[in-house]
Design brief:
This protein is α+β, with helices and mostly antiparallel strands. The chain folds into 5 domains: about 110 residues, no CATH class; about 60 residues, Serine Threonine Protein Phosphatase 5, Tetratricopeptide repeat (Alpha Horseshoe); about 120 residues, 3-Layer(bab) Sandwich (Phage tail protein beta-alpha-beta fold), CATH 3.55.50.30; about 60 residues, Ribosomal Protein S8, Chain: A, domain 1, CATH 3.30.1370.120; about 200 residues, no CATH class. It has 16 helices and 22 strands. The strands form 7 sheets. Strands 11, 14, 15, 20 and 21 form a 5-stranded antiparallel β-sheet that branches. Helix 1 packs parallel to helix 4 and helix 3 packs antiparallel against helix 4. About 20% of the residues are buried.
């Protein structure tokens, strides 16, 4: 049993009470999961708040309705309880624990009936409950082999919830099953197709139409010629144990012809000219959704390599849509798969340490540089001055200052940023200040020059620029530029118009290098040292040069500044370089004129016989002109 304790708490010296709740589980109870504990705690808060009036109004609100602080505290407690309940409902929904999720939403609605988030999560829970039942039914259908019915149910879920992970996974499985079924069906159709029939031909300087007539009579192949196919085309072909498909392709290739397959045993032959291809070739439209590469890059690749004329990109959705032959679409698919790979990423741990030491000293007696002697105002003639006693002269006061000052300053400036960068993309780190540089300019006019002021900002501090490159072996190349700057002097000026200019003298230390490190290897760079030593002395002439007593008549100062910059960098590969599959790295693309996804190869007779096909052997005994055959001058050749 769970016990709920409440205790009062005073806030801001007010007499109002705020509800505080805690749960005390039994001593022998085992620890519950974090989400369960959080839900129990939230439910306990909800019960207590509901007991206090449904809207988290504690008794002080009724005692003093004008007490704004008590109202604010009550609303704060209610909102905290509602948020915690709804967070737990989200967690339960992700784990398909819909009963617990619905219970949390119900309690949240009791506390805040107007909560839009509670209403939305409640709707999502009911939708997920329905989708889970549909997907479970689809899974049972997949196990029975009813892939079409399962695909229909999965599609219904994805239409309503495209982000459903279970439906997405099942859709991928169904797509794979569908591809396997299509491949098996294509293999069966190809094995039974007349175009896979093996033939052997021996024709020398024979008319193309006569060769196709012979193939038609012996294999049952129907051939239709375009009206523009020349009647005087001839071919010479000697093939042994070749499929009818490959034989036809070789004859067409010799005579710049192309074909369109109308059905399983009918071919339409036409000249392989651009005009005829536009007239007869069936084209497909395919949209490629790109994830890791820019659509403009793929568009340029397809136009340069495959000579794709119609390629349209959508920069907003990062898609490229092309229109071409099925073979062209297939080759483009393989090429895009080899290019659309995730880019490697590197996490760089950088530490920049600036160690500075400043020692300044000022020791000695600082005597005045000058003094003034004056006469009384009545002594304004030479005769009076000649008889003026020495004690009547006015001498300015003489004072000396003893300096005993020694200052040591040690400073360490440490910057330790972590930055994530993509492969071959620059990343910049700036740690410092933007200081204003004020300049003035004048523009002449008839009424006199007009002055304007411009303000520009200059970056002063630590600037680091890195460009990583991930190699196949796991190493990381880094191009590094480091610049450390500081203000050494301020220069200001003004003009007659009251406009001032402000500039700075900047001291800079920079380093540029390229290095190659292993994943997790640390490289330390140092030696960017600035060392300044300044000494000065103020002495009384003559007395200040004495060997020992001269220290009493001189003031010596010194300033020694030394600064060193140390850089430490460690690369960590977050996403390694991914290589394309071997099947997509090398694909057949046909000739420069015609794009084909497969290589033109002649199958061996043994491979064809294994499929149980009939072998047709054709051998021309005598070649005569077709016109003589049509006139009946000679008998038809025998095969």
């Amino acid at each position: 049993m769970e016990t709920i304790h409440t205790r009062g708490a005073r806030r801001n010296g007010e007499g109002g009470r705020s509800t505080r709740l805690c749960s005390a589980p039994p001593a022998d109870a085992r620890p519950a999961p974090a989400s369960r504990c959080a839900t129990k705690r939230a439910l306990a808060i909800a019960v207590a708040l509901l007991a206090c009036g449904g809207c988290a109004h504690v008794p002080n609100v009724h005692d003093d309705p004008t007490n704004a602080q008590v109202k604010i505290d009550a609303l704060h407690d209610r909102n905290e309880a509602v948020d915690e309940l709804l967070d737990n409902a989200e967690a339960f929904r992700q784990k398909n624990e819909f009963d617990d999720a619905a219970r949390s939403v119900y309690m949240a609605k009791q506390l805040d009936p107007t909560s839009e988030r509670a209403r939305r999560i409640g709707t999502m829970i009911e939708q997920d409950r329905k989708h889970l039942a549909i997907l479970q039914e689809a899974d049972r259908m997949m196990k029975r082999g009813s892939y079409a019915q399962a695909a229909e149910r999965v599609h219904r879920v994805l239409v309503e919830d495209p982000a459903n992970t279970m439906a997405t996974r099942m859709q991928a499985e169904l797509d794979e099953k569908r591809r396997q079924q299509h491949a098996e069906r294509d293999d069966k159709l190809a094995a039974s197709s007349i175009m896979r029939t093996p033939v052997s031909l021996q024709f020398r300087d024979a008319n193309v139409r006569m060769v196709f007539e012979a193939l038609s009579r012996t294999s049952g192949l129907n051939v239709i010629f375009d009206r523009d196919v020349r009647a005087d085309l001839k071919t010479t072909i000697f093939v042994q144990n070749a499929s009818l498909q490959d034989t036809v392709d070789m004859i067409l290739l010799q005579n710049q012809l192309d074909k369109k397959q109308m059905n399983a045993n009918t071919l339409f032959i036409y000249p392989a000219t651009p005009a005829k291809e536009l007239e007869y070739q069936e084209l497909k439209v395919r949209t490629f959704q790109l994830s890791n590469v820019d659509a403009k890059q793929i568009q340029s690749l397809l136009k340069s390599l495959l000579k794709v004329k119609e390629a349209v990109i959508d920069e907003r959705a990062n898609t490229v849509t092309i229109r071409g032959t099925p073979d062209m679409i297939k080759v483009a698919d393989e090429m895009i798969a080899a290019q659309d790979l995730p880019q490697p990423e590197v996490m760089l741990e950088v530490e920049v340490l600036e160690v500075s030491h400043d020692r300044m000293s000022q020791l000695g007696i600082n005597w005045p540089n000058s003094f003034t002697v004056s006469t009384p105002s009545s002594a304004d003639t030479w005769g009076v001055l000649h008889h003026l006693p020495i004690n009547a002269l006015n001498v300015s006061s003489l004072s000396a200052t003893a300096d005993f000052k020694l200052t040591d300053t040690d400073a360490n400036l440490l910057a330790s940023p972590r930055i994530r960068a993509r492969n071959k993309e620059k990343a910049r780190i700036m740690i410092g200040d933007k200081v204003p540089v004020i300049s003035s300019s004048s523009t002449p006019s008839t009424s006199g020059p007009s002055f304007t002021q411009m303000i520009q900002y200059l970056d002063v501090g630590i600037k680091l620029e890195v460009e990583p490159e991930v190699y196949r072996d796991g190493d990381v190349g880094i191009k590094l530029n480091l610049e450390v700057s500081n203000i050494t002097n301020t220069i200001s000026s003004g003009n007659s118009q009251g406009l001032s200019s402000l500039a700075y003298q900047i001291g800079t230390r920079s380093a540029s290098t390229s290095l190659r490190l292993r994943d997790g290897e640390t490289q330390i760079m140092g030696g960017l040292i600035s060392d300044e030593d300044r000494r000065n002395a103020n002495k009384v002439p003559g007395l200040g040069q004495l060997p020992v007593l001269g220290r009493l008549f001189s003031d010596h100062g010194g300033d020694h500044k030394k600064t060193e910059i140390v850089l430490q960098i460690t690369p960590h590969i977050v996403r390694p370089q991914v290589a394309a599959d071997a099947d997509t790295q090398e694909v057949w693309s046909g000739t420069d004129v015609n794009v084909h996804a497969d290589q033109l190869l002649v199958d061996r007779i043994n491979d064809l016989l294994m499929k149980g096909n009939l072998v047709i052997l054709l051998r021309i005994v005598e070649c005569v002109p077709l016109e003589r055959l049509e006139r009946g001058d000679v008998s038809s050749p025998s095969f």
